[in-house]
Write a structure and sequence with these properties.
heterodimer; A: 256 residues; alpha/beta; nine-stranded mixed sheet; two-stranded antiparallel ribbon; globular; B: five-stranded antiparallel sheet; 33% helix
């Protein structure tokens, strides 16, 4: 198998929009989701953009880009966005309003990988709602595939994929053969806008709807959220009139 | 497990590229001019809270009094500030409310952000209460000291800048939110509250300030009322003449007029507050505003479209009004050159990548139901694409993209002046002739051999046009490499005559200020001008309020 065609799977998550300040609900069990704008998770958007760029940069290399989302029925909005930006087909795994932990997500994705016969998975390194940063790694483990996390550059040459990763204080370059799991970091690319003609075309692209049980997975929870609270409020500063006052204040605070 | 709430930007912040636009723009602008109106660019950017206005003051802006020596001389009837006056102000204000005889500190208030006008005021007062405003004016009136009321200093016609040595009365310390009634939506605040602060406060209550404009991060609520600013959402929420319910105003002699009503209906004779809306500080100083705020839309969409001609812009507008009707909240057009300039300014490629087009349109919808709005907008856009009027377009898919798209419209003012300066004309013209002014101005400048987009030896870069189609409001920006009399002579009074010939108005929303003081006759009849002068004389017999400007 020298030059296999790429069948890319891009999982996308519907999250509260990055630009919106989340608020805690009254019962302190989570974040208020009513009347709040939801969008595609920024890291997922980058993963999607990367898969589209791979297709644009390597003629005939990509057989298809399949987007998948696990979430409530409304998660089909983010799939429509994915289709409008360049995914060919999509699957919604409707789990209702229930929160799904990374392990269950990875198990569901494993089934989709098998179903779609994917050989490259590009996904965000984390979702900005729960910041777990686990799904890609768990999925690679379940599939027993190599993984390259926090990618800032992806190059494909035949069956060899070279990934530059962001690490503390520098970069780390890896090479692996397909099949492979890549998780994306912020510097990888700048996602595009959905063009009007493509938004129209996306309405006709396939969006398959499944439930977790259709894939033979039972969603179980291992963690219980006890309480969600705001970070402590920062105390306001004080103005001083003179250097002497500044020094005496600092002394009062035992800072000097 | 105890989960702490993740503040979303955190995981994005450590790696700066997600916010790279913000950082990049900020430094570009910093190099060019002041930080002060930077808020116009990233209205909601969290990065700004850290910034302090730092401007180095080796000002190269010529003094208004010198540039326009042929037009205006200091009126010797006004008293020159002396030590006694200063001592009086020191007796009624705290030391930190007064800036005097410090050119560097005063420079910020003596100069406009376009670097076009520069006054020579020696004294800045920052009252904290309406009573202090009253005491100051009372004193100035009896001593014939001229005063310039100043808000956020984001004006475009030099209206808030002293011409000579007028005392600057800054409302920036009068900045408390007074009350909000979340049943009626009536919001009351001091004049010096920054528009964006007011809007953010209202957002928390589920309401919106019925006016939005590029300078929202700097401009004051009182300032926008005093100048009757129009802005981006006038098409949806109407003008301030309708939304303002009451005002608190201090007259020239110090009398406080309190009509800070919370009544939507009050039909008891003359509606006095209307006189002060758009009076540009010439009749009194607005210290408090009561305004009716609508519920904040739950669903907002933004699309940018490309079309091939100004005729198509009008067609799309007609269709949008019919098909989007009640959810249409902004309809802005921008010409090709304006977008090329913004692209250079932001150092970004235009989001519509397929080609460069003669005209672009920004459409915003605001409604209460996302599904409903999405469907309406997509049907409208689908039809417009199918029948060939719209050549290409993009729709923002998230809040970040939505704000980025607005940047391509809101950054035109800064982009037009980045090569040195800009002559701005903000005019109302009947829709069919609207863009004709930009073409006429370019022809005229070309005939005079003054314009070249590339050749830096020519003073003019190009005249660009954009604006609020929904309101018949064109912004003609003549981007220049330097301000010069030569260019000004070609443009004025040509532009005003052209507007008059089309029965337009020479000021749609910026006001007259200093720039257009001699051109009021192009839009108002002699009878109207006489009435205006009567009113001015009645309320400010000594003429101490904002002199040398439009009346």
């Amino acid at each position: 198998m020298s030059t296999s065609k790429l069948r890319i799977l891009v999982p996308v998550k519907r999250v509260i929009d990055f630009a919106i300040k989340p608020r805690i609900n009254k019962t302190q069990t989570g974040v208020e989701t009513k009347g709040v704008k939801f969008s595609i998770n920024p890291f997922c958007d980058i993963a999607l953009e990367e898969s589209i760029r791979i297709r644009e940069g390597n003629k005939d290399l990509v057989e298809k880009i399949h987007a998948v989302s696990i979430g409530p029925t409304k998660a089909q909005d983010v799939l429509r966005v994915a289709l409008a930006k360049g995914a060919d087909t999509s699957t919604l795994i409707d789990v209702g309003e229930e929160e799904v932990e990374p392990l269950s997500v990875a198990k569901l994705l494993q089934k989709v990988v098998e179903k779609e016969n994917s050989n490259l998975i590009i996904l965000g390194k984390q979702a900005i709602d729960d910041d777990s940063n686990q799904t890609g790694q768990m999925l690679a483990g379940l599939l027993n595939w190599p993984q390259a996390t926090n990618a800032s550059k992806v190059e494909i040459d035949g069956d060899n994929v070279t990934v530059t990763r962001e690490v503390d204080g520098g970069s780390d370059t890896l090479r692996a053969k397909l099949p492979l799991v890549i998780t994306t970091d912020l510097r990888l690319n700048d996602p595009r806008y959905a063009s009007l003609p493509n938004v129209m075309k996306a309405k006709k692209k396939p969006l398959e709807k499944l439930s977790a049980s259709d894939l033979g997975i039972e969603i179980t929870k291992r963690l219980e959220t006890l309480k969600v609270e705001e970070p402590p409020v920062r105390q306001a500063g004080v103005k001083v009139e003179s250097v002497d006052e500044l020094i005496s204040k600092l002394k009062d605070l035992k800072a000097i | 497990m105890i989960a702490m709430l993740c503040s979303y930007p955190r995981c994005l912040d450590h790696s700066k590229s997600f916010g790279s636009h913000c950082y990049r723009n900020y430094f570009t602008v910093l190099g060019l001019f002041c930080v002060y109106f930077l808020h116009t660019i990233f209205a909601s950017s969290q990065y700004f809270s850290l910034l302090v206005p730092i401007r180095s003051y080796s000002s190269s802006v010529p003094l208004t009094a010198e540039t326009y020596a042929d037009k205006v001389q200091r009126n010797q009837a006004y008293k020159k500030l002396d030590e006694g006056d200063l001592a009086y102000f020191q007796s009624i204000l705290e030391p930190n409310q007064i800036i005097s005889n410090n050119e560097d500190d005063l420079a910020f208030y003596n100069e406009d952000w376009m670097r076009k006008y520069r006054g020579q005021s020696k004294l800045l007062l920052k009252p904290k209460t309406t009573e202090q405003v009253s005491e100051i004016l009372k004193y100035c009136n009896s001593n014939k000291l001229a005063v310039v009321p100043q808000g956020g200093n984001t004006g475009l016609v030099g209206g808030s800048i002293p011409v000579f040595d007028e005392i600057i009365l800054s409302l920036s310390s009068l900045n408390k939110i007074r009350s909000f009634d979340n049943v009626s939506g009536i919001f009351k605040c001091d004049a010096g509250v920054i528009l964006e602060t007011a809007d953010q406060y209202l957002a928390e209550q589920g309401y919106i300030f019925p006016l939005d404009l590029g300078a929202k991060g700097s401009c004051h609520v009182g300032g926008v009322v005093a100048t009757n600013a129009g802005g981006l959402r006038l098409i949806r929420y109407g003008s301030l003449h309708g939304t303002v319910l009451g005002l608190e105003v201090v007259l020239a002699d110090g009398t406080i007029v309190n009509s800070l009503d919370s009544l939507r209906k009050d039909n008891t004779g003359y509606d006095l507050k209307q006189l002060f809306i758009g009076s540009e500080g010439s009749l009194g100083v607005i210290t408090g505003v009561s305004i009716l705020c609508p519920a904040r839309p739950q669903a907002v969409n933004v699309a940018v479209l490309a079309v091939d001609s100004y005729e198509s812009v009008q067609k799309v507008f007609n269709d949008a009004r019919k098909e989007l009707s009640e959810i249409l909240s902004a309809f802005e057009f921008m010409d090709e050159t304006s977008q090329i300039l913004v692209s250079k300014y932001l150092k970004l490629d235009h989001p519509i990548e397929s080609d460069s087009y003669p005209f672009y349109i920004l459409i915003e919808t605001s409604g209460s139901n996302k599904e409903h709005d999405d469907e309406k907008l997509e049907t409208f856009l689908g039809n417009a694409m199918e029948n060939g009027i719209v050549l290409d377009g993009i729709i923002a898919q998230d809040e970040t993209q939505l704000r980025s798209l607005w940047n391509w419209r809101e950054n035109i003012p800064e982009a037009s002046q980045m090569q040195g300066g800009v002559y701005k004309y903000d005019v109302s013209i009947p829709l069919k002739d609207l863009y004709g002014l930009v073409e006429a101005a370019n022809e005229k400048l070309e005939a005079a051999g003054l314009v070249d987009f590339e050749d830096i030896s020519k003073p003019v870069v190009k005249a660009v046009g954009y604006g609020h189609i929904g309101d018949g409001n064109l912004h003609l920006n003549v981007a220049v490499r330097k301000y010069s009399k030569e260019v000004e002579k070609v443009l004025e009074p040509f532009v005003y005559e052209w507007i008059q010939s089309k029965k337009g108005s020479i000021s749609a929303e910026h006001g007259l200020g200093f720039q257009k003081k001699n051109y009021i006759q192009y839009s108002k009849s002699p009878v109207e001008i006489a009435l205006i002068k009567d009113i001015k004389h009645h309320y400010d017999p000594n003429g101490i309020l904002n002199p040398y400007k439009y009346v």
